[in-house]
Structures are given as structure tokens and as C-alpha cells.
């Protein structure tokens, strides 16, 4: 699943291609891709809308229109493409939005987990999300207080989008390695100093991920190069870049988790 850096990369690439274009029509080719509103209302409301901005909130791609907000969550296999509007639809194209200038925005989703919303106000969709880890609100003081309000293992807590939005499996493993914290460590046992290091580690790996256009590790998301700089993720059995100990893989909360047994002792 694309995480914050991958979605941010997609948003930045789409932005110059989409801003200023007018939506001419929408071809919804699989109705369940649409979370809200109804297909009929969606086609009626989106027609004639002008694209004003393209951005991101957590793992959602956000497209601000003249009267609405188009939200897209790629989930496991979703992808977005700018195409010529005369191109023939592909097998897994779930939504094709025709634009002015003979272009179209195509949402391709092999596994059908991705979802699209057209709403007047995105607040309701985003109300359960935690703070953005690259925002001013995300401070080490906030993080320490939030960690100690919980009694949970670090890895599942950091993956919880209601706690902190945007982090996924890759960047959580990388941040915990930099901070030298075991993924099974209890959140309310983290010291102030350790919190400061974790806070900086989270921001560092996300910024580096964005700088390298995200990570390309499967057949869905392509174009990034952060996978060439992984410290622990997907490196089971390989030497730790810090101490040389073999990277170990365990399952935490049903998620494959990579860490260094020496640098990240429990």
C-alpha cells in the first residue's frame, strides 16, 4: 500500500497536470469504487467542476474542485494516470474522469480496494485521523504525551492512523531502527530523550522517502528509489548497516516487521 511519501509523490506529479482543467464527465466503471455519493449524483456533481489544487492528507490524495473535494484512497493496488482522453480503457480501470485539453484522469485498481469520495467538506472523512507527522502540530512534546496516554506496542500504535496519520509498514520499521527502539516496546515506557530521537527519525525517513519519490517494492507503485536505501525493511538475513548483525523478521499485529536484534533490543 502506498504510504505518505508515495502519495505525496503522486500528488506532486499530478498537480501541474491537473490544476486549471475542467471536468467534462466521469465514467464509473465499477460502482463500488465510489464510497460517496451515489453514482448518479457523482456524475451530475462532478461535471463542470474546475480543478483548483491537488494535495494529500495522510494516505488520501485530495483534489480541490470549484465546489467539491475529490478524495482518493489508493489502498492496496490503486494507481492514477493522466492519459489521452481517446485512449481505450484498460481491464482494471475503475474510474475515468475526462478533462478539458483532451486528457483524462484514470483510476486503475486491480484488487478493487481503492475508494473515491466526492464531498463538499472533507472534515467528516478526516475527523478520525491523527496529526500529520510533517506538520507543526507533530512535536516531540506531543508525541511523548500521546505515547504515554496509551499502553500499546510501538509498531501497531504508530501504524494506527487515528494516532498518527500517514505512516505504514515501511517507514515505521525504518524510523524505529534509526531510533533504536524495538517494535514490541510498550509506548508508555519511552523516555523523553527516546521520544525526541523517535520524533526526529519519523520526520527524517518520511522526508527522505519523499526526496527519493517513495519506495518501489512491488508491481503497483513504480518510479521511486527509496527501496535502495532501506536500513531494515525487506532485508531479513542481511547485515545491519550500523552493526552488521543479521536483520530479523517477525510478525507484529499481522504485519511483517524488520529490525536489528542488537541495535533495537527489547
Helix-strand layout with pairing:
Layout: H1 4-18, E1 23-28, E2 34-36, H2 39-46, E3 51-57, E4 60-65, E5 69-73, E6 78-84, E7 93-99, E8 103-109, E9 115-119, H3 123-126, H4 140-148, H5 154-159, H6 169-178, H7 192-211, E10 248-252, E11 255-259
Parallel strand pairs: 2-9
Antiparallel strand pairs: 1-7, 3-4, 4-5, 5-9, 6-8, 7-8, 10-11
Helix pairs in contact: 1-7, 4-7, 6-7
Structural commentary:
The chain is an alpha+beta fold. It has two domains: 4-126, N-terminal domain of MutM-like DNA repair proteins (Alpha-Beta Barrel); 140-259, Orthogonal Bundle (Helicase, Ruva Protein, domain 3), CATH 1.10.8.50. The protein has seven helices and eleven strands. The strands form three sheets. Strands 2-9-5-4-3 form a five-stranded mixed sheet, with helices on one face. A hairpin with a 3-residue loop joins strand 7 and strand 8 (103-109). Helix 4 (140-148) crosses helix 7 and helix 6 (169-178) crosses helix 7 (192-211). The longest helix is centred in the last third of the chain and has 20 residues, at 192-211. The model has no long low-confidence stretch (mean pLDDT 95).
- What is the end-to-end distance? 28 Å
Q: Briefly note the CATH topology name of the largest domain.
A: N-terminal domain of MutM-like DNA repair proteins
Structural class per helix/strand content? Answer: alpha+beta
Average residue pLDDT:
95
CATH superfamily of the largest domain: MutM-like, N-terminal
Summary of the model, kept short:
By secondary structure, this protein is an alpha+beta fold.
